[in-house]
Amino acid sequence: AAALRGSFIRKAQLSNKSSHCLQVQASYKVAVLGAAGGIGQPLALLVKMSPLVSALHLYDIANVKGVAADLSHCNTPSQVLDFTGASELANCLNGVNVVVIPAGVPRKPGMTRDDLFNINANIVKTLVGAVADNCPDAFIHIISNPVNSTVPIAAEVLKQKGVYDPKKLFGVTTLDVVRANTFVAQEKNLKLIDVDVPVVGGHAGVTILPLLSKTKPSVSFTDEEVKNLTVRIQSAGTEVVEAKAGAGSATLSMAYAAARFVESSLRALDGDDDVYECSYVQSDLTDLPFFASRVKLGRKGIETLIPSDLQGLTEYEQKALEALKPELKASIEKGINFVQKQS
Ligand code: NAD
Ligand code: LMR
Predict the structure, then answer these.
(1) Other Cβ atoms within 10 Å of 84 Cβ, number
(2) ipTM reported for the complex, 2 dp
(3) pLDDT the model gives residue 23
């Protein structure tokens, strides 16, 4: 919401400066692949609200026509187009600036995210192959789980197609930050809008590492609060899976988080010089090839990774960082091997 609001405010500010020549134009094309799903539908609605979007391309293997017809009646700038099935995928992606991928199956109680690998790995591989063929310059946002493996899968596919730009491939971990901000604000009685907690590592269980010592505004936690908050943030996805009792995983909070990441990407593409988000990306901040951290976004994707968050960690955070590495490393290798074995 802050990102969406920021964009509207920016539009107003620019309009005030010189309404005849500095109007922000809705000029970016966004595609959602898996748009008829639990995340896809509310995400499409939120992206439809963005003043920066001129076209919203909705793709799914079924049921996307009705979603697009419905959304197209909202009187916001973007044109909504629907695309169904593999034969329409290339047209969906043509000329697109940002591709968001929430296609794939969600967890049921008792499953890990890695249990989704066998189905979702193939889906992500195929969709990213089409992105490589049709809009290789686009920012790619991967939501489909297991993100710790699907991002390395996407990177391998793009490499094989000769179009890999590590600055433009993102695993969406914004929901971990959204959750951390919410839980910390509740626990410490802080104003929600002020709270920002960097979350690093990956997006599954212990690989999700909130750096509570880096919370803004500065706030102190007891050891017990750190432990309880860390575990709650790491298991928040499971909390939703269990509450939904077989009907899927987080969709609404995920759509909110993904829309924030889309809006941040569009603001960066539009020249905003002050856009920072956490994301799971190719990284040299640790000895792992992919790692989530705060990144600065610019017109060409990632401008810089932010190493300072990993400096001066507490003993608890340092230990948790070392402890997450074997699982994250194995998930990365599983993704890379999946693509390399098939070629
Ligand atoms: P869902 O089943 O409600 O929707 C998935 C959609 O993907 C469906 O509409 C389905 O038709 C579509 N789909 C399946 N195969 C496709 C293909 N080959 N091409 C295009 N579309 C295809 O699931 P959901 O709740 O929306 O979750 C989607 C994914 O997002 C899951 O893998 C879930 O684990 C993941 N997820 C990630 C995060 C995160 O933080 N990164 C958060 C929540 C969920
Ligand atoms: C989440 O964190 O909510 C998602 O990764 C979905 C899940 O399976 O928990």
Answers:
(1) 18
(2) 0.99
(3) 52
**What does the pLDDT look like over 17-30, one tens digit per residue?**
333 334 556 799 99
Which residue's alpha carbon is at the smallest distance from atom 16 of ligand 1? 103
Q: Report which ligand 2 atom has the smallest distance to the Cα of 241.
A: 9
Q: In the structure, which protein residues have their CB atom closer than 6 angstroms to any atom of ligand 2?
A: 106-107, 113, 145, 175, 237, 240-241, 249-250
The residue whose CA is least distant from atom 13 of ligand 1 is: 103
Residue 7 CA: distances (Å) to CA of 14, 24, 38, 80, 193: 11, 10, 26, 20, 16
Q: Residue 67 C-alpha to ligand 1 middle, in angstroms?
A: 15
Cα four-point dihedral sign 218, 250, 72, 101: positive
Q: Catalytic pick from 20, 57, 73, 203?
A: 203
Single out the residue of 36, 58, 100, 50 nearest to residue 78, CA to CA.
50
Give the HSE-up count for residue 101: Cα atoms under 13 Å, Cβ half-sphere.
Answer: 30
In this predicted structure, the answer to whether residue 5 has a pLDDT above a threshold of 80 is no
pLDDT of residue 24: 58
Q: At what angle do helices 174-188 and 236-244 cross, to 10 degrees?
A: 90
- 203 carries an active-site annotation: yes
Listing DSSP states for 184-223 in one string gives HHHHHT--GGG-B--EEE-SSGGGEEE-GGG-BS-----H
Helix pair angle (236-244, 223-234), 10° resolution: 50
CA of 240, closest atom in ligand 2: 3
**Cis-peptide, bond into residue 217, ω within 30° of zero:** yes
Which residue, judged by its Cα, is nearest atom 1 of ligand 2? 237
- The model's pTM: 0.95
* Closest listed ligand to the CA of 145: 1
